[in-house]
Amino acid sequence: MKYSYTWEEVEDAVNALSVALQKKGFTCIAAIGRGGCIPAALVAHKLGINVVDYVNYNRDYGFDGDSLTGRHQFEDVLFIDDATETGGTMEFIKARYGNPARVAVLFCAADNQINRPDFVGLEYLGDCPKMPWEVKKQK
Question: Record's InterPro entries (predicted)?
Fold first, then answer.
C-alpha cells in the first residue's frame, strides 16, 4: 500500500520551505497544476505573497497554458509543485521560463539528483507518497 502524507507532514514541509524562502524576494507564486495548487496557497499565506498564478503542466499531457505571459519578470516568480520524482517538471519549467526560474516542492525524492528543484521542503525515500488532498475520482 502506498504511503499517504498527513496534513501535519505537509505543514512541516511548508514550514521548512518558508524558512528557506523568507528573504529571497519572490513577489509571485506560480502553482504547477494541479498538484501544486494547494502547496502554492499554503506557502503564499505563510510568506505573505498575494499574487498566485498558475502553470498548467502535467507529465502525461504536457503544457496547457499559464497566467504568467507578460505579467512578471521570472526572477521574482517562485514555481511550486507538491512533489518531484524524476525531475521532468523541473526540466520543463527551466526550459520554458529560462534559467532565472526557481522551483520549490514540498517533497522531493532523496535519490533525485538530476533536475533537482531549487528549494525542497522535505525528502522521501521510495515511491512518491499520496498527498492528503488527493481524493478518489468521482464516478
Answer: PRTase-like, PRTase_dom
| Burial state string for 93-103 with b = 16 or more CB within 10 A and e = fewer than 16 | bbeebeeebbb
Using pLDDT thresholds of 50, 70 and 90, give the confidence band for residue 75: low
CATH of domain 7-124: 3.40.50.2020
Q: What is the pLDDT of residues 47-58, one digit of tens each?
A: 999 888 888 876
Torsion angle of the four alpha carbons 69, 72, 133, 95, in this order, in degrees rounded to the nearest 10 = 60
122 bridge partner residues: 107
DSSP for 96-111, please give it.
Answer: HH-TT-EEEEEEEETT
Q: How far is CA 90 from the centre of its chain?
A: 9
